[in-house]
Amino acid sequence: MAERVSIETATFGLLGPLAHTPTRTMSVHCVIFxxxxxxxxxxxxxxxxxxxxxNRYLGSDALLSLGIVVDVRLxxxxxxxxxxxxxxxxxxxxxxxxxxxxxxxxxxxxxxTVHISAEELAAYDEPRSRKSYHPYQVSRQTTLETxxxxxxxxxxxxxxxxxxxxDLDAKLIPLPGHxxxxxxxxxxxxxxxxxxAGDAYFDARINFLDPPPGLPLEIAMQADSCDRVAxxxxxxELRDRHGLEVAMFCAHDxxxxxxxxxxxxxxxxxxxxxxxxx
Length: 278
Ligand SMILES: [Zn+2]
Prior knowledge:
Blueprint: E1 5-15, E2 26-35, E3 38-42, H1 48-52, H2 54-57, H3 60-66, H4 76-82, E4 90-94, H5 100-103, E5 113-117, H6 118-125, E6 143-147, E7 153-154, E8 157-158, E9 160-161, E10 170-174, E11 183-189, E12 192-196, H7 204-207, H8 216-221, H9 225-242, E13 246-249, H10 254-263
Parallel strand pairs: 3-4, 4-5, 5-6, 12-13
Antiparallel strand pairs: 1-2, 2-3, 7-8, 9-10, 10-11, 11-12
The chain binds zinc ion.
Residues 99, 101-102, 199, 251-252 line the site of zinc ion (ZN).
């Protein structure tokens, strides 16, 4: 019998500000899929290791340049516990990419199978290819499922379906540029598609201008400028052509996060931070 998939979103971290935009706080917008007792995450945010020893695991450069709020209560492990979910219930984690603010929390869920693009894992395995890849995130014990190109299409974009439970329709959508193997993750909820665009854009009000100005953070962090701009164009086209059929949000646009969660009546308990952080 089909099991109902319950979908919630949460921010597993806070960063910011993103200079020159109205965005002062940045979310780490992640998704929690519940199918019975089983839980599947889309991105993890930072983990407990980074929050408990930030100088050691994140370093002063990242703390300062990204404005990372250090509080272990923001981690996926703690946010899930607040919802009554145990770490052992997390069987799978789908990642947009392997930067620490998206994959840092992997070590808190050692039993989960990690789903990632083959290109992203290859980039991660190259020595010193990216400062925000941390070597301790993926260990020999990590169970990995990698995905290369396929002939599948989704609203005119290349896609790769994920072998998750039958009732959870989810696909990796190549949006390279921020990192080499960066992917959006599309999923269907009650027949409606949503695309988590990861870090393909940072601020919906700025990045969808035509042409978009370059934001310092996205340029500083990009693996390939041409790929990043091309991915942004694809998203603009998707929004123009299929905006009614596909909802979209990214990881770090806090206004998007607020409107998405409040609009759905599912504000995260971490909202206590809103009283102290703008
Ligand atoms: Zn990020």
